[in-house]
Specification:
heterodimer, A: about 575 residues, B: about 180 residues, alpha/beta, seven-stranded mixed beta sheet
């Protein structure tokens, strides 16, 4: 009866009000691709050429319902592999690469559908409460930084409860739940093929494709006080509880915290023309879970910035000292994501297999200064505005374990210059730098050296047509790495675009790599990759893309996380949009 | 197969519905700006609000911003508000204020370090991303990406909304709703 009355009241309200009671919006991202990688299994009895050909269809649907009772958000991902076959003794065989969980195993098909994210949020006053999936980030991200990283398609949320209260000048943020990693990779193959690693004649492994998630526990509390004169201050504590067993089985392991991170930050805004920020965190390890069984030590992370605005310049100073703090990220390393990340001070666009170690260093100390020369007045379309900058980072990396190629500590020196020019619809921007990783035994083992350049140029040509050219390249030379010695290399990525307004874009991509660590093979030549893409926008909200060709594999770092991305050769069609 | 079919049906419906379905309620939000001041979307009910999502690492976003500054300067007295939301995460949030200050932008820039608002408006995290909200708090238009000339369409849409339901002519309320450190 109560339900009936509530429904009646709801219906009455809907009739009385012309505004919709519930409004629904959403986004859709649908893609079909056919892989034809140039991989052949040595000595494998295959007479049909492309042994590893297969198709992949990926769909991501998000829905958002809004009403006075809050918003309900859901993200549903679906992936299907098809045509996933190989030939054994000239007999066509099927295989399934999406292993568990799966909704069905059909002939040469595997499909997986997952409710990746679901959240109900209600606003009250200036605050809000969320049940379900929410992101969490405190301070500069050193204690907790769970977010969506679009660049490399990582999305880890806290599935539980999160609330933000804003009484007066205070912010109180509290959350608790288990980690929920996005399972389906939208832009990358969900089937991991590693044929070259198989010995001749061996049976193909089933997977790994999508592996079961582990539901690590996390809870956090942060208090912020704004407007104490020019000062904002905050303090937090985050408790991590990592589990071993996948899925719901892991919940039974919760209850004994593995890492506790108390921390505090203070920010002063516009004090004598400067902005200041300092954060300090301690990393306490009650168990050895994050240390792989070794005796844990208490770690710390310090990070500070000072920004000054004298005359027509902006000076940004950053400093950090990070010791035994990154163990926090070890338990999720096998699941390819990090739960917290400090600012790196590194130019992430050119991070390599070796220099990525600095991102995840256990023991690093350093600073960076950047100065921008700025014109006067606001940036406006009819004013040509050039902002050159110079940045220099100096880092002392004392960690020689993990991903590090160097056996002794090193000092990293990395100057970068750049400029951004905006003039109406014309754009020119570039960044160029040189990095040297100077080992302490410089005479014996030398240094890693890197030169890099990237630029973007956009120029109107006729009517609504314009061109855009983007390119980035780097040359890397290794020091002496003994048994781990790698080959020096050059890598270039570029795109040339001819575009008519928003409606039509024609893009040509060219990649080059002489890096032997890159696992893909080019389609134009062994080291050269080419691809063509047409992008059409039939309405404001929808875009259709068709791609044919190849791009290279490689490491890509973004937001303090790095991921080895596989190369691609084949064709794909994508439809994205909102409604 | 049923689930797969349902997903495909949703795609088809989305296409059919897309021309009119953008008239949905703009989700409420509150964020801190670069000085720590509280900015609430519902404080601007009665105005046309342009919400821009951008990031310091996004080149097209930076190309778009001088044009947004021009629209803001011209139309703020007529009842237009521009809220620029930085999608930079906690680690790169330090870059936002120096960039905005260096470029001399005068509109409020809000920090969404944990993507709480981005998730509601722009779950694909396409950048730049513009949402035009009418005087009644309904989403009137969404723009993804930026290409030369897009600003002309944006201005026309905003002016059409102003003409349809003129808002009170008041200066752009850049003053925060709670005391800001200054």
């Amino acid at each position: 009866m109560t339900t009936f009355l509530a429904a009646a009241a709801w219906a009455q309200e809907a009739t009385a009000s012309k505004e919709p009671v519930v409004s629904v919006a959403g986004t859709e991202d649908f893609e079909v691709r056919w892989y034809t990688p140039r991989e052949h299994l040595a000595d494998f009895p295959d007479s049909h050429g492309h042994v590893a050909d297969y198709g992949e269809q990926v769909n991501r649907l998000t829905l958002l319902g809004s009403s006075k009772w809050g918003t309900l958000f859901a993200q549903i991902d679906e992936v299907t592999l098809f045509g996933d076959r190989y030939f054994l003794n000239d007999v066509s065989m099927c295989e399934s690469q999406l292993v568990r969980p799966t909704t069905g195993d059909l002939a040469c098909h595997t499909r997986y559908v997952n409710l990746e994210k679901v959240a109900w949020t209600q606003q009250f006053g200036g605050g809000n409460v969320t049940l379900g999936d929410a992101y969490a980030s405190f301070g500069r991200g050193m204690a907790v930084d769970l977010d969506r990283n679009v660049d490399i398609d990582l999305d880890t949320s806290v599935r539980g409860v999160k609330a933000v209260f804003r009484p007066g000048a205070w912010d109180v943020t509290v959350f608790a739940g288990v980690l929920n990693r996005q399972q389906v990779a939208q832009d990358n193959p969900n089937a991991l093929k590693n044929l070259a690693a198989l010995p001749p004649g061996s049976e193909r492994p089933a997977g790994p494709g999508i592996s079961p998630d582990r539901m690590h526990g996390v809870a956090g509390l942060r208090l912020d006080r704004y407007g104490i004169g020019h000062v904002n201050a905050g303090a937090h504590v985050v408790v991590w509880d990592f589990v071993e067993a996948p899925g719901l089985e892991g919940l039974g392991e919760l209850g004994s915290p593995d890492v506790i991170v108390p921390g505090a930050s203070i920010e002063a805004i516009d004090v004598a023309g400067a902005d200041l920020f300092v954060e300090a965190d301690a990393f306490v390890y009650p168990t050895a879970a994050a240390w792989g069984g070794a005796d844990p030590r208490t770690g710390h992370a310090l990070y500070g910035t000072a920004t000054l605005y004298p005359g027509r310049t902006v000076w940004l100073f950053e400093g950090k000292w990070y010791r035994d703090a990154d163990y926090l990220n070890h338990p999720t390393g096998s699941e390819l994501y990090r739960v917290a990340a400090p600012p790196t001070l590194a130019y992430e666009r050119v991070i390599t297999e070796d220099s990525s170690a600095e991102v995840a260093s256990m023991n690093t100390l350093g600073g960076r200064v950047r100065v921008d020369l700025i014109p006067s007045g606001p940036a406006l379309p009819d004013v040509t505005r050039s902002t050159p900058y110079l940045a220099v980072a100096v880092l002392r990396d004392l960690d020689t374990g993990g991903l590090h190629f160097n056996a002794v500590p090193e000092t990293i020196v990395h100057p970068v210059i750049g400029m951004e020019v905006l003039s109406g619809h014309r754009v020119f921007a570039f960044n160029a730098g040189a990095r040297a990783d100077l080992r302490d035994d410089l005479q014996a083992n030398g240094m890693d050296r890197q030169l890099h350049l990237d630029f973007d140029v956009k120029n109107p040509i006729l009517g609504e047509w314009f061109t855009a050219i983007s390119a980035s390249g780097e040359a890397f030379a290794w020091g002496n790495n003994g048994a781990l010695q790698q080959q020096d290399y050059v890598e270039i990525e570029s795109s040339i675009t001819a575009q008519r307004g928003s409606e039509l874009a024609l893009v040509w991509y060219t990649d080059y790599s002489s890096n032997p660590l890159v696992s893909s093979v080019g389609n134009l030549a062994d080291r050269v990759y080419g691809a063509f893409e047409v992008q059409v926008k039939p309405t404001d909200a929808w875009t259709v893309k068709a791609f044919f060709g190849s791009y290279k594999a490689g490491i890509r770092c973004s937001g303090g996380q790095c991921r080895q991305l596989p190369g691609f050769e084949g064709a794909r069609v994508a439809v994205t949009g909102s409604f | 197969m049923r689930i797969f079919g349902a997903v495909m049906l949703a795609v088809a419906l989305a296409f059919v519905a897309s021309p009119t379905a953008q008239a949905s309620e703009a989700p409420a939000f509150t964020l801190r700006d670069t000085t720590g001041a509280d900015i609430r979307l519902d404080a601007y009910r009665g105005k046309v609000v342009i919400v821009q999502f951008w990031a310091t690492w996004c080149g097209p976003c930076k190309s778009e911003m001088p044009h947004l500054q021009k629209i803001y300067t011209d139309l703020a007295p007529k009842g237009v508000m521009l809220l620029s939301i930085s999608s930079d995460d906690a680690r790169s949030a330090v870059k936002v204020k120096p960039y905005v200050t260096g470029q001399g932008y005068t509109f409020p820039v809000l920090l969404d370090k944990d993507s709480s608002v981005t998730k509601l408006y722009n779950p694909q995290v396409t950048l730049p991303y513009l949402v035009v909200i009418d005087q009644n708090g309904q989403i009137a238009k969404i723009h993804t990406g930026y290409n030369p000339g897009d600003e002309l369409h944006l201005r026309a849409e905003v002016e059409a909304l102003l003409a349809a339901a003129p808002a009170a002519t008041v200066p752009a309320p850049t003053v925060p709703t709670t005391a800001a450190p200054k």
